[in-house]
Design goal:
It is built from 9 helices and 9 strands. The protein is an alpha/beta fold and about 260 residues long. The protein has a single domain, classed as Spore Coat Polysaccharide Biosynthesis Protein SpsA, Chain A (Alpha-Beta Complex). Strands 1, 2, 3, 4, 5, 6, 7, 8 and 9 form a 9-stranded mixed beta sheet that branches. It is globular.
């Protein structure tokens, strides 16, 4: 079964996120919402949507997200009960109504191929929910390394909310503790896939919200931290996982490190 885990702090868009879950054609999933000591209480909204989907809520003591975001994600994932697959869904992102349905329709193939990571197509939306990118299309099975190189070359994009992971594989690698969790999602995809196969579903869309309220969308803050985190992540790949990358792929990584900080 599938767990959809939502690390919650911002109240601004959570209603739209929950609405996208209640609109799923296939409701064979449980929702876990971990509250990072938010000043905003989501329980009235949760009661409204709990009529359609199972939602388990926990308010944590002490806010981790400000300084140790990856540890906050990990304790949210610690809420999962018996489910064998999970999605870590941003509290401002929206899923198309067929995401869960298409996951289950392909699950037999995914398990037969021993694949641990599933990727959906995505589009970027703004703070008003308006799309301002098109979606990328992928082959049904792609190499996670190839997908990351495509991202470096702006031929693809990637975020946590457009992926489903096998829980048992996540438990062997956890999150890469980079500042702002910048590239922590990329490392999880690479390691959970064993630097190998990702199953891609083009027919479903994850709408990834990029706004001034998000780390990725804030163009005025964190630029130095993001650049330093990128270099740190790439050095980790080149020093400790170099045998996974061809010389051509290494060249793309070195080139992307040529940023001013």
């Amino acid at each position: 079964m599938l767990a959809i885990v939502i690390p919650f702090f911002k109240i601004d868009f959570i209603e739209a996120t929950l609405q996208s879950l209640t609109s799923q054609k296939n409701k064979n999933f449980n929702v876990y919402l971990g509250d990072d000591a938010s000043p905003n209480d989501p329980r009235v909204l949760l009661k409204k949507f709990a009529v359609s989907v199972t939602i388990k809520y926990k308010k944590f003591e002490g806010r981790l997200g400000e300084k140790l975001l990856y540890e906050y994600w990990e304790r949210c994932l610690g809420m999962i009960d018996h489910e064998t697959w999970f999605m870590l869904l941003g509290d401002d992102d929206i899923l198309s109504e067929n995401v869960v349905d298409n996951f289950y329709k392909n699950l037999q193939i995914i398990e037969q191929e021993d694949i641990n990571v599933v990727k959906f197509s995505s589009v970027i939306i703004d703070g008003f929910g308006k799309e301002f990118t098109s979606s990328f299309k992928f082959q049904q099975v792609e190499s996670s390394i190839d997908l990351y190189i495509k991202k470096l070359k702006n031929e693809s994009r990637s975020s946590l909310s457009e992926h489903i992971f096998k829980k048992s594989k996540y438990e062997t690698c956890r999150f890469y503790p980079n500042p702002l969790v910048w590239h922590s999602d990329d490392m999880l995809i690479l390691q959970a896939s064993v630097f190998n196969k990702v199953f891609c579903i083009n027919e479903s869309i994850a709408n990834i919200r990029v706004s001034a309220k998000s780390i990725s969308g804030n163009q005025l803050m964190y630029n130095r931290e993001k650049a330093e985190a990128t270099i740190s992540f790439h050095m980790e790949l080149l020093e400790n996982h170099h045998d996974r990358f061809s010389e051509n792929r290494k060249a793309h990584i070195y080139k992307s490190n040529d940023v001013g900080i």
